[in-house]
User: Which sequence fits this backbone?
């Protein structure tokens, strides 16, 4: 019995996993974090290193999300 490998389009159709970057776990690609709230509930806007390269930025970011 031989098995034929799936094509790229068939593999892409199987990829249905989506990460919730707004309300889900910490994610370096997230541009907005609401933690289950609405945008109108936001009272403070924090800016960070978007590439998460700065170890201090990442440390503070993780502390704030805990």
Assistant:
């Amino acid at each position: 019995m031989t098995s034929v490998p799936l094509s790229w389009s068939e593999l892409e159709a199987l990829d249905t996993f989506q990460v919730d970057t707004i309300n889900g776990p910490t994610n370096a690609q997230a541009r907005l974090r609401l933690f289950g709230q609405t945008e109108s509930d936001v009272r403070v806007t924090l800016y960070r290193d978007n590439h998460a390269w700065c170890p201090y930025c990442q440390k503070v970011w993780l502390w704030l999300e805990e």
